[in-house]
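Task: sequence design from structure.
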């Protein structure tokens, strides 16, 4: 499906992956982030609420120190995240005249009702202040068993927490293919995924980026998590600026359509609807 009514989306969570933040051994690069920032400015001019979920802290720290060994233990990743997180926030701030706000979350924050409620209130207050939230996992304090695993699922959780109606995952691939496009040039992009189409998980592959924790499988799982809660999800190629097609009401990648909420049992209603 090529056409999409982008005008109807008012609250958008945009996830930007490490491959776009810190490509080609650079700590942080404007190459892909500046066009994304310009897209966000267009969304803001259209009175859309935007939250950015930004990866890249570990990669930024890794590249800043000029490291070459990709076999990192948890403590090394946590230290690199501490170095890289401030770099990432400064990186985003230079693209916007308005203030950006660092929001660090853990899975405990999401699962704890009181903390999740506090986070929800913070997001609402930031919107009133006109500040742009930049969300990342608080990598310096979480343990391996408590990690989201990647920022794709964090983005889905943030989308639920902020009552978003669209989750936009900007990656370094065009979306979900029926085979690995890096290995099979004949792989076909799946542009439209209906609700409850769990077969799409069988097409997902692991990450080809050595410093990326995710991969297409994590993106698909995040998309399915969001769509089950009534949030559309689009996975597109941030390197080619495919997201700009949304401004023309065209589908830029793989569009996962939300499950109608009348089909969701009240017993499994959104636990993040806290207000």
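Answer:
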């Amino acid at each position: 499906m090529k056409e999409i009514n982008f005008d109807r989306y008012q609250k958008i969570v945009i996830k930007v992956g490490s491959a776009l933040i810190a490509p080609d051994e650079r700590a942080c690069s404007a190459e892909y982030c500046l066009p994304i920032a310009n897209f966000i400015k267009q969304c803001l001019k259209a009175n859309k609420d935007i939250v950015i979920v930004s990866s890249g802290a570990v990669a930024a720290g890794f590249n800043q120190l000029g490291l070459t060994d990709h076999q990192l233990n948890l403590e090394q990743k946590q230290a690199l995240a501490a170095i890289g997180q401030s770099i990432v926030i400064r990186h985003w701030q230079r693209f916007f005249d308005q203030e950006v706000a660092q929001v660090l979350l853990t899975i405990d924050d999401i699962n704890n009702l009181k903390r999740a409620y506090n986070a929800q209130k913070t997001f609402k207050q930031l919107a009133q202040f006109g500040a742009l939230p930049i969300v990342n996992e608080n990598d310096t304090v979480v343990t391996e068993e408590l990690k989201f695993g990647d920022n794709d699922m964090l983005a889905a959780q943030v989308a639920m927490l902020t009552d978003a109606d669209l989750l936009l995952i900007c990656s370094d691939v065009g979306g979900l293919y029926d085979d690995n496009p890096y290995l099979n040039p004949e792989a076909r992009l799946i542009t439209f995924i209906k609700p409850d189409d769990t077969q799409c998980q069988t097409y997902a592959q692991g990450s080809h980026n050595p410093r990326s924790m995710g991969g297409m499988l994590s993106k698909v799982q995040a998309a399915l998590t969001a769509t089950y809660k009534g949030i559309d999800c689009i996975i597109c190629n941030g390197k080619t600026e495919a997201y700009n097609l949304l401004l023309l009401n065209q589908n830029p990648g793989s569009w996962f359509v939300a499950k109608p909420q009348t089909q969701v049992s009240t017993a499994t209603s959104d636990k993040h609807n806290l207000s």
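The first helix runs from residue 18 to 21.
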